[in-house]
Design brief:
The chain is of the alpha/beta class and about 375 residues long. Strand 1, helix 2 and strand 2 form a beta-alpha-beta unit. The chain contains 17 helices and 9 strands. About 55% of the residues lie in helices and about 10% in strands.
Length: about 375
């Protein structure tokens, strides 16, 4: 049976903006190693060749040319290999009739998958230009993002900047795209985005927002690095010149936010991922590593003191008493994070246009 979709139901294969905005499903037939390095939110990896097969064919191509490489590829992906992969592709097509398939440049690999699908009675289109073309489109969109007027949302650790952005329709979530909260304790249970995926996700956010070119956008105050990924340089330069709105909340308010974010929620996430016992061990390592990262700035003596308090809090947690973590979180905020952030904010003092609590800052931005 032939599967097809009318032109009115399917976005044009080169209309990348519509494909991203409408989250059109994409089947990536590159090798898993390529997919892991960089992909798109709406794509799924059903490769033509696995990593070893791709490496073998690549070596053959360099030594003996394209014809020999194609012959070898057909030998490697044959029999049960071909049958099982074809079944995967057919299932994707049935579930996503409006989608596209692609390889790196829209060349031999995607054309081979398309041909094998057609031979099985399924017509399925290629994404124009493949991964490389869509990736370049997203990079170009990031350059457009950097041209927008910006407002930077600042505030001490725990002031609620990231949740605040949810209430701003003209905001982008840099930390959400990065898969990291930016601090020493900012990692999540799941691995952080690669640099390429961070850029792709940020561009996808921007496109989905459908902002006019002159619209002011709100971004959280970030340094050059968010965890292990770095901001696009053009965007960073624009952020360094943008006006700043500062959220000011009490130490008690911020301490509660940090406690909920880094203790309560992270405990739940580790236990949900690894089970109660292994989850607690992984959570303990997460906290210990976070504190270890700031030892030089705190000094060895103070670090040792807080490490002891943290260790005791972890012991107390095993009997269900999480609140003892406040005993080391409070001095960590007041003695380390607050002085550091106030110093950094001092470098931006001439750009600050408003200060207030969450509600006041939100009202100010809505009025603007």
């Amino acid at each position: 049976m032939t599967t097809s979709t009318s032109a009115t139901e399917r976005a044009d294969s080169s209309d990348f903006r519509a494909i991203i905005r409408n989250k059109i499903p994409l089947m990536d037939v590159r090798a898993p190693i390529e997919f892991e390095k960089g992909a798109f939110n709406q794509s799924i990896n059903y490769p033509l060749m696995n990593n070893d097969e791709r490496a073998t064919v690549g070596t053959c191509y360099k030594s003996h040319g394209q014809a020999a490489a194609i012959t070898l590829g057909n030998e490697l992906v044959a029999g049960q290999n071909k049958t099982s992969r074809l079944a995967q592709w057919q299932a994707f097509v049935r579930e996503n009739p409006q989608g596209y398939l692609y390889c790196f440049r829209g060349g031999l690999r995607s054309q081979t998958v398309q041909r094998w699908l057609k031979e099985s009675g399924v017509n399925y289109p290629l994404l124009t230009g493949g991964y490389k073309a869509l990736r370049q489109f997203l990079l170009d969109e990031l350059e457009k993002l950097a041209l927008h007027p910006l407002i930077i949302l600042a505030g001490n650790t725990g002031s609620g900047k990231t949740p605040f952005l949810v209430n701003c329709t003209n905001s982008l979530d840099l930390e959400g795209a990065a898969g990291h909260r930016g601090s020493s304790f900012g990692s999540f249970v799941t691995p952080q985005s690669s640099q390429i995926n961070f850029e792709n996700k940020l561009a996808e956010q921007y496109i989905t927002g459908d902002f006019s070119s002159e619209q002011t956008l709100v971004l959280e105050d970030e340094g050059r690095l968010i965890g292990s990924v770095h901001l696009p340089e053009s965007l960073r330069q624009t952020m360094m010149l943008a006006p700043v709105v500062v959220i000011e909340e009490s130490l008690e308010y911020r301490l509660e936010q940090i406690y909920q974010e880094y203790i309560v929620k992270m405990t739940d996430q580790y236990e949900a991922t690894y089970g109660i016992e292994k989850g607690f061990v992984a959570f303990s390592e997460y906290l210990e590593q976070g504190l270890f990262k700031v030892r030089k700035r705190m000094g060895s003596e103070r670090y040792g003191q807080l490490k002891d308090i943290q260790s005791k809090a972890l012991i107390q947690q095993q009997s269900g008493q999480l609140q003892h973590h406040l005993d080391w979180l409070k001095p960590l905020l007041s003695e380390y994070y607050d002085p550091m952030y106030q110093y950094q904010l001092g470098q931006k003092a001439d750009r600050v246009i408003f200060r207030g609590n969450n509600a006041q800052c939100l009202a100010f931005l809505h009025d603007k």
